[in-house]
Records
---
Amino acid sequence: MKNIVLFGPPGAGKGTQATFLKDMYNLVHISTGDVFRFNIKNATELGLLAKEYMDQGDLVPDEVTINMLKAEVEKNADANGFIFDGFPRTQSQAEALDAFLADKGEQINGMIALEVPEDILVTRLLERGKTSGRTDDTDESKIRNRFNEYNTKTSILKNYFADQDKYYGINGVGSIKEITERIAEVFDAL
């Protein structure tokens, strides 16, 4: 089983690349955003709990997020591996994920981070904003604020995985096919 954390700033192409990796390697893609939306829409116990926090404008506690992800992993016990997308976001989440996987005799094999210069990302997101319907993709100051959040939080995780020799930075500029090939090269070596 190979488990990776797919990381990158907004607009880096994580969703696109996760789709290709999922199909190429028969992995299960776990997107935190999708898991949250599913649990809230289906009014699961965890979804209702998360919604309570979100409705108050508070961050959903790590424990709730982690329990949702654990449930996703358990639902897919026969998987060849997992792509974690949008999780972990903090060192405590990374530690909790490591502990959970270790209990199952598994581990994160690597964090693959798509590295793209900020100006290219701004252009990509503004372009995406024309069709995505996402208001946070149409305002450059909001986009730059998202990068600030990402850079502040990710630097911690980059170091966390680098300290375990599990950080792999990938050039996220080029054609989709070129980027997929770069990721596959790293994945195959894990």
---
Amino acid sequence: MTASRTSGSAAAASGTSAVSSQPSFQNVLSRTASAASVSAPSTLESIFAKASQKYGVPENLLKAVAKAESDFQANCVSSAGASGIMQLMPETAKEYGITDIFDPEQNIMGGAQELAANLKRYNGDIKLTLAGYNAGCGNVAKYGGIPPFAETQNYVKKVMSYMGQDIQVPNTTYQAASASAGTSGVDTSGLANLLSAGSASGTSTADNTDFTYQDYQMFVGLIVNALKNGWDSDSSENSRSSYWYR
């Protein structure tokens, strides 16, 4: 199926059909699936490096906290409700805009933001930063330093010890939770499979008559996105005049 248009006046004047320069639905489908695959799977190592660079937190500090908090277990949940690799509380995750607390990248980024805020609050003092991360900054203020809690004091010592070690991070690969949304906000998680299925059978996607409910959902999502933004990713005013529905 293609989404071509003709320029009515030009076609009438010349007596021939004009070929639209607008991309076909097949091309849009391919381009959208390609956009969805841009977010390559990440390893924990690469996520820690990215978080460190983005928020200015030493990478060994991030890894040491993750080691102490969950031993790098993404699905870890404490009795208090702290979750994920960096053991974030739900309210903290919400504060940092985390939509999936168990997604490794979102969780690590949230932990990095919390540590960065503490480092700024305590002028780079790592021990106070860790105490605040574990017991809350309110308790650090209340006691004028590391709170006299055995758990917090042991936590600070443990993380400081890990920081001096060569921490082995599990070589596990994760797919970012938001990757299926591509760059347009449309769920394209099944588009790549739809396209590859057509290629494998020697037919184009347009020739594939097995139109499933999942295909219908993706098709509607693409149409809605096109109505909002046009086929082209360029949303500038100049490009608006070339939207397919005008």
---
Amino acid sequence: MTLAQLQQLALAGDIHELNLLSLEGGFYVLQALTADGNARLEDDQGRVSHLRSLDHARFVLREVPELPLYLVQFSAYDEMVGMAPRSESPLKVKVSARALDG
């Protein structure tokens, strides 16, 4: 979903929450949860948008109505090659979608 589509769905009240997924390599992916499932933020060419930080996500979301936003960190052990999957849930912390300094 593009940023314009995200904004339209948010205005219509069709987005339940946003998850900022922290991924290996130091980048983040924004995932929207809707009644139809999950959708990741993409650019106009259909490529998944890689964000640099929580502040970068806040900047990108500045025109989008405020929604519940969670920072999600998966276990590093789940990403290790050859390790058995663990049943632990990822760390999910609610954060403000707006910068603290206004």
